[in-house]
Each structure stands twice: as structure tokens, then as C-alpha cells.
């Protein structure tokens, strides 16, 4: 490896790191406690540098893992032990805001919220807002096809990506499409790259479509006496013809743990509150939002709920969203856990929750569920708690397989927004048969015949 590091040092000068501290720092993302220490960390800042790195790695068959802000939850950005870690953090510029066409061209290392805030100043809206939006990179969002609460009305990352500049495994640089809203020209290379987790090419520029930024919003927190009923209410709201801009489910413990984690006890959770729905409406006309809100209240009358909290200030809205966004960190701080990112058609959500609770009884573990209920996207946290290491190690995989089989039986799939990466690849056979998997592997082979781009991810062999 030493002669390779000499090559990278010559190419990047001070932006090739092989010291222990940096290698340790880039050995993990937010996925459980997995660490793999790369041989070196490269921080290029131009497309030419990325191109030369890939050409060199391809010729020398060195594995390269692109790395964003390391906020991923499926291990997509965990490098190979002694591989090359390619950090995109110096690609941190918003290049062009095209107000006339409602588009932005950005580099991948821009923090998603910083991009959103800059656009908002111009009245423009980039909606996808993963929980980690304050620290994740837009490039990582493209790699994982990230979602977040607003996906329920506005769609996920893929719905905004118009065109990408990509460095291929052999160092060639291509644009995948055109900066247009409609495109029926050949295969859709842009959407093939979105969600491909750095296994097909390295994204160096991103063209996103934008919307006018909504000016009004309402936020409601609804306590339910039964978690299943909270899930049932989700589909009922849609059947009333309402499209909220956020419709989040939190099981009792998710909110209680988030309160403890954030030390924000401004919400009173009663003993018999089993779950909450956080419902947001947005738009440009407050009268219309109020009318939708009244319709939601009418729907809720069919369910057993306690008093609804209407956020009456921006500060209160921020507090409620903060409680929701901190659930994952709260769970992480509590116990060893395994998080699954299940997604089913919205109407099947109550059945999924009931099944999870029966699995809990069968296997004797605890689960905490929360997530983007309007999308049918439930984050299922399996908590180790007091379980013995032996039971945890022996039974966890069977529990997850049972869960995923049920998800697929309900018409869903095994990841809604966190990706497959390293930790879910062993379950891909539940979501896809061999014909489907072989097609995907053949695509990988065309893009990356030497298997240098983020090898060991998505596929189990
Ligand atoms: C969330 O919805 O909070 C995020 O997807 C993060 C997570 O579930 O771990
Ligand atoms: Zn989520």
C-alpha cells in the first residue's frame, strides 16, 4: 500500500491522510458500532483529482469507498479495512442558483440544511429533510435516496435530482442527463445513480429541481390511547383527501425517551398515551390549511384520542420537531439496538405494528417503533436492553428475517430511506429473487468491472 499512498500524496499534497487518528475517524458512520480502518483518507476538491484517483485505483484494483458526512445508518460509507476512503467534504460549494428555472447546481459535500437555508432566502424550497439534515451532505442523500418527514407530500431525494456529474470507475467523467424537468431520452442514468450507494460512480455535481417555499404551516400533536389506532388514523386522514406535509408516528417510548434525551419536558405525556401522531400541514393560504385541519379533526373523532396540541408559535413547532428528530439518538444512547427501516403500503401499517408486537412476545425482546407513517415507513428499533449477549447474537437475525418476510408479504420492502449498505445486504434475498439480483449485479459489472467502487455493499457476495 505504501507506494499507492506515495502516489496519492503526490496528487493531493496535504489532502492525503494516512495517520492513525484520521483513519480511525473515517472508519465508521452512524451505523451501530461497526468500524473498519482504511489505509488512507483522501480529500480531493476537484473533479480532475477524483478522476485521477479512480483511474489509478482501477488500474491497481484498489477498493474505494466514497464518504460523505458519515451520518448513514446502513454502513454504506464504512470503508474496507485497508481500503481507500474518499471523503467528499471539500466539494462544499453551492455552484449556481438558477432562480429563473427553479434549479440549483451544487457540489455533494454541502450540508443539506445549509443548502435549504440558502435557497429559502430566495424563496426557494428543496424539501427532502432527513433527521440528520443539520449534518448530512446532499451527496450522501443522493447516494442513499434519503427521505425524511416531508417526503410524504413532496417525495424523496430522487424526485428532485435532474442531472448528475459522475466520475466512472475508469476515471471518465459523464453527465447522466440534462437540466430539464422532462426527459424521455434513453435509459435514465440519473436515477440509476441515485440510491446506488457509491457502487456505480462518484457524484461530483448535482442538479436539483426546486419549488416555491411555502409561507404557512400548522403543526398538531395528537395523543392516542392505542398505538394501532394511531396507525389506522394515518390512512383515514388520506382517505379524507388531505395531504399533510408531515405525518409522523411515535410509539410511547420513542417520545418518552426523546424527552429524557433532550431534557425537554414541555409536552405532558400521560400514563395511558400509547402513541402520538405529529401532523404538519403547509402551503400558501392559512384559510385552506385551517379547513384541512378541521377535516383532520373530524377524522380523528372516529378514534380514541386525548386533547390535541396545536403548536402556537414557531418556537413550539421547533420544539416538537426537535423531539421527533432526536428519537434515533435517544434510542442509541439508551441501549445496544438494531434499527430496521421497514416500509409497507400505508394501509398495511396497523398490521405491521401488530405483527411487530407479536414478534416481541415470541422472542422476548423489546421494540420501539416510530417513523414516517404517512409513507408507511416505520423505523423498528429492536432493543437489546437486559437480554444476554448469547440470546441477542443467536436470535437477532431470525427476528429480522421474520420481520422482513412479513413486510414483503404486506407488499412492502426492507428499506424505505436508509439504504442496504453493509448491514442489510444479507436480507436482500427476501426483497428480490435471483433474476432481479442478477440484473442488478450485471449493472454493477458494466459500471465497475474491477469491483473497486464501494465493494461489499448492497450484495451479499
Ligand atoms: C429518522 O427518521 O429519525 C431518521 O431516519 C433517523 C433514524 O431513524 O435513525
Ligand atoms: Zn427516518
Describe the structure.
The strands form four sheets. A seven-stranded antiparallel beta sheet has the order 15-12-14-13-17-18-16, with helices on both faces. A five-stranded antiparallel beta sheet has the order 5-6-10-8-9. The protein has a four-stranded mixed beta sheet with strand order 1-2-4-3. 37% of the residues lie in helices and 20% in strands. It is globular, with a radius of gyration of 22 Å. It is an alpha+beta fold and 461 residues long. A hairpin with a 4-residue loop joins strand 17 and strand 18. The two termini are 25 Å apart. The structure holds D-malate (MLT) and zinc ion (ZN). The site of D-malate has 7 residues, from helix 12. Zinc ion is lined by residues 131, 371-372, 379, 417.
Amino acid at each position: 500500500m505504501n507506494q499507492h499512498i506515495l502516489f496519492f500524496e503526490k496528487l493531493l499534497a496535504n489532502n492525503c491522510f494516512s495517520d492513525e487518528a484520521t483513519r480511525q475517524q473515517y472508519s465508521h458512520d452512524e451505523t451501530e458500532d461497526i468500524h473498519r480502518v482504511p489505509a488512507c483518507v483522501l480529500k480531493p476538491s476537484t473533479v480532475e483529482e477524483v478522476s485521477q484517483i479512480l483511474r489509478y485505483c482501477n488500474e491497481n484494483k484498489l477498493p474505494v469507498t466514497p464518504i460523505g458526512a458519515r451520518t448513514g445508518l446502513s454502513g454504506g460509507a464504512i470503508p474496507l479495512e485497508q481500503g481507500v476512503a474518499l471523503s467528499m467534504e471539500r466539494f462544499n460549494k453551492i455552484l449556481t442558483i438558477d432562480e429563473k428555472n427553479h434549479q440549483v447546481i451544487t457540489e455533494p459535500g454541502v450540508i443539506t440544511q445549509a443548502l435549504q437555508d440558502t435557497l429559502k432566502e430566495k424563496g426557494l424550497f428543496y424539501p427532502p429533510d432527513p433527521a440528520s439534515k443539520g449534518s448530512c451532505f446532499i451527496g450522501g442523500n443522493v447516494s442513499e435516496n434519503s427521505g425524511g418527514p416531508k417526503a410524504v407530500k413532496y417525495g424523496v431525494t430522487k424526485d428532485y435530482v435532474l442531472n448528475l456529474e459522475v466520475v466512472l470507475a475508469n476515471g471518465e467523467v459523464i453527465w447522466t442527463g440534462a437540466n430539464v424537468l422532462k426527459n424521455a431520452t434513453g435509459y435514465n442514468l440519473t436515477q440509476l445513480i441515485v440510491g446506488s450507494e457509491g457502487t456505480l460512480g462518484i457524484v461530483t455535481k448535482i442538479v436539483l429541481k426546486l419549488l416555491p417555499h411555502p409561507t404557512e404551516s400548522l403543526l398538531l400533536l395528537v395523543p392516542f390511547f392505542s398505538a394501532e389506532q394511531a396507525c389506522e388514523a394515518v390512512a383515514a386522514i388520506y382517505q379524507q383527501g388531505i395531504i399533510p406535509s408531515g405525518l409522523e408516528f411515535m410509539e410511547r417510548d420513542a417520545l418518552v425517551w426523546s424527552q429524557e434525551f433532550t431534557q425537554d419536558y414541555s409536552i405532558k405525556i400521560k400514563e395511558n398515551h400509547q402513541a402520538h401522531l405529529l401532523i404538519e400541514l403547509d402551503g400558501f393560504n392559512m384559510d385552506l390549511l385551517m379547513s384541512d385541519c378541521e377535516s383532520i379533526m373530524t377524522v380523528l373523532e372516529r378514534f380514541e384520542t386525548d386533547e390535541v396540541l396545536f403548536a402556537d408559535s414557531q418556537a413550539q413547532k421547533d420544539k416538537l420537531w426537535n423531539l421527533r428528530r432526536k428519537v434515533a439518538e435517544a434510542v442509541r444512547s439508551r441501549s445496544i439496538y438494531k434499527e430496521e427501516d421497514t416500509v409497507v403500503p400505508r394501509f398495511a401499517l396497523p398490521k405491521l405494528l401488530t405483527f411487530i408486537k407479536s414478534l416481541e412476545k415470541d422472542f422476548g425482546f423489546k421494540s420501539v417503533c416510530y417513523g414516517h407513517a404517512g409513507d408507511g415507513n416505520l423505523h423498528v428499533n429492536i432493543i437489546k436492553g437486559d437480554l444476554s449477549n448469547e440470546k441477542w447474537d443467536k436470535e437477532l437475525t431470525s427476528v429480522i428475517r421474520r420481520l422482513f418476510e412479513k413486510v414483503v408479504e404486506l407488499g412492502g420492502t426492507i428499506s424505505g430511506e436508509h439504504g442496504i449498505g453493509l448491514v442489510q445486504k444479507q436480507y436482500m434475498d427476501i426483497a428480490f429473487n435471483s433474476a432481479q439480483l442478477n440484473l442488478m449485479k450485471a449493472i454493477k459489472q458494466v459500471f465497475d468491472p474491477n469491483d473497486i467502487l464501494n465493494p461489499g455493499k448492497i450484495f451479499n457476495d
